[in-house]
């Protein structure tokens, strides 16, 4: 097995030192604290600054943690809070609906599955946590797309992939679908990602009503929809109730 990479260990030590500091630190202070040559410390700091992990004050020349690193930390906390707040409600939704439940959030123009509860039966199922799903072809994705301008912008100028005959790839039709999601408070997919599969999802809101994720169920079309391929109102109600419950736990009290 290869050994540790010294430069990465030193960079991590610098970041920890800056995180523990009550103010900005100069190159000499950092080098002295970690037993590094001043030139070595300066070279690592310049690299960290280039990728946004540290920032240098123009007046003093001292360093502090950068916005890019802070954003990564905030994203991690947001995802984990979403998952921890939603776990119990996701389990309850799977029990009530009899279907698999997924919780997703937006990541680089896709839906990142952060939690997955198996359908409560004995069938063989694969864990989807960490999977990236398309925004335009899933109920989770549509629920996010309808309430996030950045999500809509991320796919506006891209060619949307067709997964099935019913996949919506026309931006105008997708925009109309997003409008319906906002009006109804929930999203659906019927054989848009996989033949024979359907799904229902609703947005999860945090403080101020900001949509931070979505929760939904998925399963066979004949279980999710009626004979007219319309999602069963009973299941829609279950999903919306779960989304409201998670939203309340996250501070979105109006929902």
From TrEMBL:
| Biological process annotations from GO | glycerol metabolic process; negative regulation of DNA-templated transcription
Q: Which UniProt keywords apply?
A: DNA-binding, Glycerol metabolism, Transcription, Transcription regulation
Show where the IclR-ED domain sits. Answer: 68-252
What SMART domains is this protein classified in? HTH_ICLR
Q: Which InterPro entries match?
A: GAF-like_dom_sf, HTH_MetabolicPath_Reg, Tscrpt_reg_IclR_C, Tscrpt_reg_IclR_N, WH-like_DNA-bd_sf, WH_DNA-bd_sf
Q: Where is the HTH iclR-type domain?
A: 5-67
Q: Which GO terms of the molecular function aspect are on file?
A: DNA binding; DNA-binding transcription factor activity
Q: Please describe what this protein does.
A: May be an activator protein for the gylABX operon.
**Protein name per Swiss-Prot or TrEMBL:** Glycerol operon regulatory protein
Could you tell me which species this protein originates from?
A: Actinomadura verrucosospora
